[in-house]
Specification:
Largest sheet: 12 strands, antiparallel, barrel
Strand content: over 45%
Helix content: under 10%
Distance between the termini: 16 Å
Radius of gyration: 23 Å
Number of strands: 18
Structural class: mainly beta
Shape: elongated
Strand order of the largest sheet: 3-4-5-6-7-10-11-14-15-16-17-18
Low-confidence stretches: 1-22
C-alpha cells in the first residue's frame, strides 16, 4: 500500500502519469501479519504538478511534451480468513495530463487497475518470521484519443488547420489522428523474512519474481493509409509514404511482449517514542524481456537500484498515517513495465524521485 507519486510515461504521448504500480506487499514490511486481527483498510492519494519537479526531470526528457499534472487514488482492504493468511485487494484510479508546444496542445489519459495479494505466514526460522507472497494485478489504460498531431511540419487529424484529415465513412465524423490503449497483467511470487529485536527495531529481507504481459493498441486512419497515389504525394521534400513510415517508427511495436524482474529489497524499521516509526530500505532489480523488438539507436536498460524512506505516525488507537519518499536510478524500470517501450526507453536513463502519503487502519 506504500503508494508513491511520480510522473511517468502514459504510453507514447504522456510522460507524467502517477505510477500505477501499487505494491501492496510493501505494507507488511511495517505492519506484521500477527498484529492484524481481522484485516485492514487503507487509502492513498498522490499528486504531481510541474512545481513539484524538484529534480527538474522534465527538462532532461528531450521531448515536445511537458508534464502538467497528475493525480492518483488507491483504496485497499485486507481480510484474514485464517490467523496466518491475509488476502488483500486494491483498486487504482489514475489520471494525468501533459502539454505540448504544437498539436496536440494537451493530452489527458486515465489508468484503472485491480490487484490481489495473498500473504501466508510460515513458522519462524532462525529467529526470522517467514512469509510467502503471491499476487496478481491487471491494469488498463483507457483509450487515449489524440484529435490532431503535428509531425515534421505535417499536421493530421480532426482540427482546424490540419494539412490532412480523414472522415469515418459510417458516421461521417472526422477521424482523430491516433487512438492508443494498453493493458498489463502481472503476477508475482516472493518471500519475506523479518527479525524483531527487543527494542522494537526490525530488520527484513524480501526477494520477489515478477512477470508482466504487456499489450498495446494503436489505431490511426493516417498510419493505415495504403492508397498508392496518396502515398506518392510529395510534402516537405519527401513522399507521404516516407513520412508515415518514419512516424510509425516512433510508436511501440504492435505485438505483445513480456517482462520478467527479479527484485531484492532489505530494510530497517526504527521506532521513535511510542507513536513514531522511521523506515529505510534499499532495493535492486534485474529485468529481462521476451518478444520485445530492440530498435536500432534505442538504448536498452535492464537493471535498477532503489532507495526509499518513510515516516509513520500513530495519532490514536490503531490508526496510522505515513509519508514516503523514493529514489530510483533508472526512472520506473522494473516498477511499471507498461510504460517501457521503444519510444520511452530513452527516458529511463535518468534517476527519479517520488513522494506519497496515506492512511491505514488495521482492525
Amino acid at each position: 500500500m506504500n503508494r508513491f507519486l511520480i510522473f511517468s510515461s502514459i504510453l507514447f504521448f504522456c510522460l507524467n502519469a502517477v505510477v500505477a504500480r501499487a505494491e501492496q506487499a510493501s505494507i507488511m514490511t511495517v505492519l506484521d501479519l500477527a498484529e492484524v486481527e481481522r484485516g485492514y483498510i487503507a487509502l492513498d492519494y498522490a499528486y504531481f504538478s510541474e512545481s513539484l519537479d524538484v529534480f527538474d526531470f522534465a527538462s532532461k526528457l528531450e521531448s515536445t511534451f511537458t508534464p502538467k499534472d497528475s493525480a492518483s487514488v488507491y483504496g485497499a482492504m485486507g481480510f484474514k480468513p485464517l490467523s496466518n493468511l491475509m488476502i488483500s485487494y486494491q483498486r487504482e484510479e489514475t489520471s494525468a495530463a501533459t502539454t505540448r508546444d504544437r498539436e496536440p496542445f494537451e493530452v489527458e489519459s486515465d489508468v484503472q487497475g485491480n490487484a490481489l495479494l495473498i500473504q501466508w505466514q510460515l513458522e519462524e526460522r532462525f529467529g526470522y518470521a517467514v512469509q510467502v507472497i503471491a499476487g496478481f494485478a491487471a491494469r488498463e489504460q483507457s483509450d487515449l484519443t489524440v484529435g490532431c498531431y503535428a509531425y515534421t511540419g505535417l499536421t493530421v487529424g480532426a482540427c482546424e488547420g490540419a494539412d490532412l484529415s480523414f472522415t469515418n465513412q459510417e458516421t461521417g465524423e472526422p477521424e482523430p489522428a491516433v487512438v492508443t490503449a494498453a493493458e498489463e497483467d502481472r503476477w508475482q511470487l516472493g518471500l519475506l523474512i523479518k527479525k524483531q529485536f527487543g527494542n522494537g527495531m526490525s530488520l527484513w529481507h524480501r526477494l520477489r519474481y515478477l512477470h508482466s504481459d504487456v499489450d498495446t493498441d494503436t489505431r490511426s486512419a493516417f498510419l493505415d493509409l495504403d492508397d498508392p497515389f496518396l502515398l506518392g504525394i510529395q510534402y516537405n521534400g519527401e513522399t507521404l509514404g516516407r513520412t508515415i513510415s518514419r512516424f510509425k517508427a516512433t510508436f511501440p511495436q504492435e505485438a505483445p511482449w513480456s517482462e520478467a524482474a527479479l527484485r531484492y529489497d532489505f530494510g530497517l524499521n526504527v521506532p521513535v517514542g511510542d507513536r513514531w516509526l522511521l523506515t529505510g530500505e534499499v532495493g535492486f532489480l534485474k529485468v529481462s524481456r521476451s518478444g520485445f523488438d530492440q530498435y536500432d539507436g534505442v538504448p536498452s536498460y535492464k537493471s535498477n537500484a532503489l532507495l526509499n524512506a518513510s515516516i509513520w505516525y500513530n495519532p490514536v488507537g490503531d490508526l496510522a498515517i505515513y509519508g514516503r519518499a523514493e529514489l530510483s536510478q533508472h526512472y520506473l524500470l522494473g516498477l511499471d513495465p507498461m510504460v517501457y517501450n521503444q519510444r520511452t526507453a530513452k527516458f529511463f536513463e535518468h534517476p527519479y524521485a517520488q513522494i506519497s502519503a496515506g492512511i491505514i487502519y488495521p482492525f
